[in-house]
Amino acid sequence: MRKFLFLALCFAPLPVMAAPGRVGPEPGLPDPAAVAQALASHPGVEAANARTRAAEAEVRVLEHGPYDYNLQTSYNRRSIVQESVYDEFEAQLTKGVRWPGKVRLDREIGQYGLTAQKNRAEDTRHQTALMLADYWWAWLSAAGEAEVDRQSVANYQTLLSAVKRRVELRDASMLEADQTVAALEAARLAAERSSGREKVARSRLQAQFPAMTLPDHAEAIPAPHEPEGGLTHLRDLVFARSHEIAAAEATAHMADASAERARADRIADPQVGVRVFSDKGGIERGAGLIFIMPFGNGRRSALADQAGANAAAAGADLQVVRRTLQETADSDLAGAQAALHAWERADASRRAQEAALVKVRRGFQAGALDLSELLLAERQTQDAARAESIARGDAHAAITRLRIDSHHLWIGDDED
Question: What residues form the membrane-spanning segments (predicted)?
Answer without folding.
Answer: none
